[in-house]
């Protein structure tokens, strides 16, 4: 900066001494004197184990059709990147905001460094807090050679403790037809609705019935809203909302002929897919319809949500799965998954994998991190009609009256489709499936009623008391409700990458810079041309001054030439590649323009 | 077959009795806390809105003066005591906690031009239009005694300002010249002049205590070293500087309140370019005072408002005004850095919070934690357009608002003319002068 301090010549010698004795404090305007060895300082010790546990870091980029892994920011390792302030935007965690960076670069840089270091430290701390987790996940292992899929529920019930054994039950409700079911977010309550109009909600752990009604109409789907006090039921004509006493609170006529329901808990949106082909988002906190999107793909009856980014996945009869957000009239992405129509879609809790099954009897697992390529495929004898992921990544498929569960290597890995982990045969064809959150339990709705199955290792053992607490009291629930409503995420923020908001908005930054230059008539940040300082004691002749100036200019020129050469080379390589893949040159090519 | 099911003991998760606190187990696994960024953004938005809702900075108005308040002084040892001098020669001492006047002195005939306290807090000095310097005891007279100054110095010319040395029994006055006085003597130790114009204020440097700065009506700011007989250097600006204030934490830095609506922060070692030009006022700036942290300062203006500027920003972060407040003559930031006092034309002294939305009183630990968390969130998301708009919005009186618009148009026109001139002349023949350099006429040593 131009205001770099010069040592005052007028200051009396006494004071001068004083100054030299004291260590010279660094002032905020002394930007030139700050040593530019930003990257040279070694980062905090990089414990590999801790690095793996960093929250959300590897989930940064959901960019279409690009390999995500190569884009991962590794800022602390690359000091070179810091030199160029424009490349700092890869620091998504620093939360710099989507507006232009402040103009003082050195200060911004140091602030960013501090933020980065802080983030590193907190992530290490958060990872370390894993020691404090009290519960261990469940598991099921066969003796050597024994196939766990052959172990039947009765054996498991016999082997486990009484409290866990009580979680296995069968509700025999044969006369009200196939059932859909839904667990509340805390995993404490269960609601189910039968095709013949039977709707019931109960605290399934204590087996206390909250309400039981008959709506005298076909029930297509049932879903808890943000808490167990509200219940959305998709009935034959309209969407109805009941409270936990079974009293009808609302009848929403704008959502008619709804086939599937999904609730986005952080946005307070109830997404409904209808027979008429509309995907409608209803904001249940204010009762307004946020968006009604026409999928233009006929009747919609396959829907699921991505819990990581609140994007709705719709399966269509032409074999595609489309991804929707209320902010866009068009789908965010369309994935061709199957030869026939799509029968079921499920997305795991980390938002990394999507399982689909189609009329072509295939079950596929897709990678959702940008590539949208199938990771594994398996052909099932009858095809799966219903799919669901558990919190720890188990995949369940309902095929006729059989339920198959596949497990992966652990949390965050895709389920391997070779060997089923568990199988179970029910008394009727499956109509609804859901793993109970925070429990090792799978709820299955079928034509013979509702079955609660034991699946060891399905549920997340350690819940977060402030997020969803199965043991919360009424007071705690009320408090949570207020807080959740206060931080309701606006529907416009739903996009493929939920961290996109934390990226620096480079486009508007550059736009602003351009506008500023236009407004001022010159570039205020342009580098001043090199002006050699005269050397001391008469050694600086004009000729040598000019020579030095020439030297610097030549250096700059050489840099430019080097860059353009590199660019040319790259282009040539690209062209060569394009040529080599193309067909052989023909004589007729000369006529091509 | 080996099997283990997830089986929690409810006793570990539910409180035993109603007198216990609820148990809240935590798990920081990011998959259990999705939408981290959007949720934090919404929280930051709410925090910013609440900050604006709770922004009620005005605390009290101290009335009692019978003429405009011309000068203010802080007690160096007592946070609750302030002193004020009025245009009718009256000096009042106030108690801020009780918000009343505890002592009234008819000190001068005509204006009280300047007031300053001694560093020990036992006495204070006033100068007035009657060409006298008077020293007063801080405590009132005993029963039956008369209110009389400790010392009175009769001068030859009018004194316009006074400031006391921060460590020694020396004070400086200004008028036709800058005089440095020993408290024990009736004649100045030395008198310093540079040019022939009246000097409006003089200020001692609180860190390098031998240094002092003054500003005169011939548009210059002069720096002196008390140990030398002659001034150090001066800088001449476009327009007159009303007063200066030294940064209490950074010895070289001072801020000048100028008639051209701007404030200039200078580094005294490089006076040819100010470190920062602070512009937001729409009329002459009359007074300036630093916060004790040295990070911010407050300025009083003729446009009936006071503004708070961060030292390193050119725009103000806060503006305070009320319907009844007229031209603000003097302003002070209290020594605990929490409050601001301003004295204005219409005889009142007003007390403001330095941080408009701050909650006064004792905070519980939860309140404090929530405040810190919200502060951090606001900081993190401050550049987002929606949040920035809410945080920056201030209601302004119509006069100031229309003046700002008008000045914006004028500035734009001037800039356009300059751009056109550059565009249509030979490249390099019209120099591009930065905003900082524009207002400096010359530096003389």
Automatic annotation (TrEMBL), chain A:
Coiled coil: none
Keywords, alphabetical: Nucleus, Phosphoprotein, Repeat, WD repeat
Cellular compartment(s): Nucleus, Nucleolus
Top-level taxonomic group: Eukaryota
All residue ranges annotated as the BING4 C-terminal domain in the record: 420-498
Low complexity composition bias: residue spans: 87-103, 563-573
Keyword Phosphoprotein in annotation: yes
Pfam families (alphabetical): BING4CT, WD40
Transmembrane segments: none
Keyword Repeat: yes
Function in brief: Scaffold component of the nucleolar structure. Required for localization of DDX21 and NCL to the granular compartment of the nucleolus. Part of the small subunit (SSU) processome, first precursor of the small eukaryotic ribosomal subunit. During the assembly of the SSU processome in the nucleolus, many ribosome biogenesis factors, an RNA chaperone and ribosomal proteins associate with the nascent pre-rRNA and work in concert to generate RNA folding, modifications, rearrangements and cleavage as well as targeted degradation of pre-ribosomal RNA by the RNA exosome.
Protein name stated in the entry: WD repeat-containing protein 46
Organism: Macaca mulatta (Rhesus macaque)
UniProtKB/TrEMBL annotation, chain B:
Keyword Repeat applies: yes
GO-annotated biological processes: decidualization; female gamete generation; maturation of SSU-rRNA from tricistronic rRNA transcript (SSU-rRNA, 5.8S rRNA, LSU-rRNA); protein ubiquitination
Signal peptide positions (record): none
Chief place where the protein resides: nucleus
Keyword DNA damage found: no
Keywords, ordered alphabetically: Nucleus, Repeat, Ribonucleoprotein, Ribosome biogenesis, rRNA processing, Ubl conjugation pathway, WD repeat
Localization, UniProt: Nucleus, Nucleolus
Protein name: DDB1- and CUL4-associated factor 13
Native organism: Macaca mulatta (Rhesus macaque)
């Amino acid at each position: 900066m131009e205001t770099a301090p010069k040592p005052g010549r007028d200051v009396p010698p006494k004071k001068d001494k004083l100054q030299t004795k004291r260590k010279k404090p660094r002032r905020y305007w002394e930007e030139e004197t700050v040593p530019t060895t930003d990257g040279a300082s070694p980062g905090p010790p990089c414990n590999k184990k801790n690095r793996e546990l960093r929250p959300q870091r590897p989930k940064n980029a959901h960019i279409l059709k690009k390999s995500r892994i190569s884009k991962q920011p590794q800022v602390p390792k690359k000091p070179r990147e810091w030199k160029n302030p424009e490349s700092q935007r890869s620091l998504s965690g620093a939360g710099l905001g989507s507006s232009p960076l402040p103009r003082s670069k050195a200060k911004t840089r140091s602030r960013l460094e501090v933020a980065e270091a802080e983030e590193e430290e907190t992530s290490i701390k958060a990872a370390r807090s894993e020691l404090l987790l009290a519960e261990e996940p469940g598991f099921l292992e066969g003796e050597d050679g024994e196939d766990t899929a052959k172990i039947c529920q009765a054996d498991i019930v016999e082997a486990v403790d009484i409290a866990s054994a009580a979680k296995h039950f069968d509700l025999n409700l044969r006369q009200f037809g196939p059932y859909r079911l839904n667990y509340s977010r805390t995993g404490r309550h269960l609601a189910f609705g039968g095709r013949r109009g039977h709707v019931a909600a109960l605290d399934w752990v204590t087996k206390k019935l909250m309400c039981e009604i008959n709506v005298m109409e076909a029930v297509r789907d049932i879903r808890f809203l943000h808490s167990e006090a509200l219940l959305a039921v998709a009935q034959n004509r309209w969407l109805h909302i009941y409270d936990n006493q079974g009293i009808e609170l609302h009848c929403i006529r704008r959502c008619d002929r709804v086939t599937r329901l999904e609730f986005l808990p952080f946005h307070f949106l109830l997404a409904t897919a209808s027979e008429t082909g509309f995907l409608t988002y209803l904001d249940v906190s204010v009762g307004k319809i946020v968006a009604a999107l026409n999928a233009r793909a006929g009747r919609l009856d396959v829907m699921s949500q991505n819990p990581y980014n609140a994007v709705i996945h719709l399966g269509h009869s032409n074999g595609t799965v489309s991804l929707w957000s209320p902010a866009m009239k068009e789908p965010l992405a369309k994935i061709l998954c199957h030869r026939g129509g799509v029968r079921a879609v499920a997305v795991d809790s980390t938002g990394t994998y999507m399982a689909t099954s189609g009329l072509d009897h295939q079950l596929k697992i897709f990678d959702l991190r940008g590539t949208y390529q199938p990771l594994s495929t398996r052909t099932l004898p009858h095809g799966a009609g219903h799919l669901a992921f558990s919190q720890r990544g188990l995949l369940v498929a309902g095929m006729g009256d059989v339920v198959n569960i596949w497990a992966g290597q652990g949390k965050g890995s895709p389920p391997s489709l070779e060997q089923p982990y568990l199988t179970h045969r029910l008394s009727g064809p499956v109509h609804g499936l859901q793993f109970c959150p925070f429990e090792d339990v799978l709820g299955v709705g079928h034509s013979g009623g509702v079955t609660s199955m034991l699946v060891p290792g399905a549920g997340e053992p350690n819940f977060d008391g402030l997020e969803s607490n199965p043991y919360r009291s009424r007071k705690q629930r009320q408090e949570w409700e207020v807080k959740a409503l206060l931080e309701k995420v606006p529907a416009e923020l739903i996009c493929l990458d939920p961290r996109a908001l934390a990226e620096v908005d480079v486009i508007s930054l550059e736009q602003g810079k351009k506008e500023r230059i236009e407004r001022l008539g010159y570039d205020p940040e342009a580098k001043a041309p090199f002006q050699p300082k005269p050397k001391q004691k008469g050694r600086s002749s004009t000729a040598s001054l000019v020579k030095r100036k020439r030297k610097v200019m030549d250096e700059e020129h050489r840099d430019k030439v080097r860059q353009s050469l590199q660019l040319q080379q790259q282009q040539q390589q690209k062209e060569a590649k394009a040529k080599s893949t193309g067909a052989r040159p023909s004589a007729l090519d000369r006529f091509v323009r | 077959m080996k099997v283990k099911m997830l089986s929690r003991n409810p006793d570990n998760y539910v409180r035993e009795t109603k007198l216990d606190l609820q148990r809240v187990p935590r798990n920081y696994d990011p998959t259990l806390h999705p939408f981290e960024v959007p949720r934090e953004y919404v929280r930051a938005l709410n925090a910013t809105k609440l900050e604006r809702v709770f922004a009620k900075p005005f605390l009290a108005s101290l009335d009692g003066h019978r003429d405009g308040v011309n000068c203010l002084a802080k007690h160096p040892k007592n946070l609750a005591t302030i002193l004020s001098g009025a245009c009718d020669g009256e000096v009042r001492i106030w108690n801020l906690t009780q918000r009343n006047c505890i002592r009234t002195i008819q000190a001068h005939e005509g204006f009280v031009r300047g007031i300053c306290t001694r560093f020990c807090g036992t006495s204070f000095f006033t100068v007035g239009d009657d060409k006298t310097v008077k020293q007063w005891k801080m405590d009132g007279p005993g029963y039956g005694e008369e209110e009389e100054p400790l010392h009175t110095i009769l001068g030859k010319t009018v004194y316009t300002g006074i400031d006391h040395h921060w460590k020694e029994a020396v004070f400086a006055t200004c008028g036709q010249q800058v005089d440095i006085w020993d408290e024990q003597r009736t004649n100045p130790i030395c008198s310093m002049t540079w040019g022939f114009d009246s000097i409006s204020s003089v200020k001692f440097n609180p860190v390098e205590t031998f240094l002092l700065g003054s500003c005169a009506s011939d548009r210059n700011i002069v720096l002196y070293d008390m140990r030398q007989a002659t001034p150090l250097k001066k800088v001449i600006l476009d327009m007159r500087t009303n007063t200066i204030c030294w940064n209490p934490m950074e010895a070289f830095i001072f801020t000048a309140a100028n008639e051209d609506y701007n404030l200039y922060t200078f580094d005294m070692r490089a006076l040819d370019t100010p470190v920062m030009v602070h512009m937001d006022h729409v009329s002459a700036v009359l007074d300036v005072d630093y916060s004790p942290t040295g990070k911010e300062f407050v300025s009083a203006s003729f446009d009936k408002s006071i503004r708070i500027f961060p030292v390193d920003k050119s725009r103000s972060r806060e503006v305070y005004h009320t319907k009844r407040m007229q031209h603000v003559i003097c302003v002070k930031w209290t020594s605990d850095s929490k409050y601001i006092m301003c004295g204005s034309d219409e005889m009142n002294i007003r007390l403001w919070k330095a941080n408009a939305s701050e909650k006064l009183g004792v905070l519980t630990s939860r309140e404090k934690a929530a405040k810190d968390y919200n502060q951090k969130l606001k900081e993190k998301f401050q550049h987002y357009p929606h949040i920035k708009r809410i945080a920056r919005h201030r209601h302004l009186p119509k006069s100031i608002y229309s003046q700002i618009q008008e000045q914006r148009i004028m500035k734009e026109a001037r800039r356009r003319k300059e751009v056109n001139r550059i565009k249509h002349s030979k490249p390099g023949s019209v120099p591009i002068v930065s905003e900082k350099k524009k207002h400096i006429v010359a530096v003389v040593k």
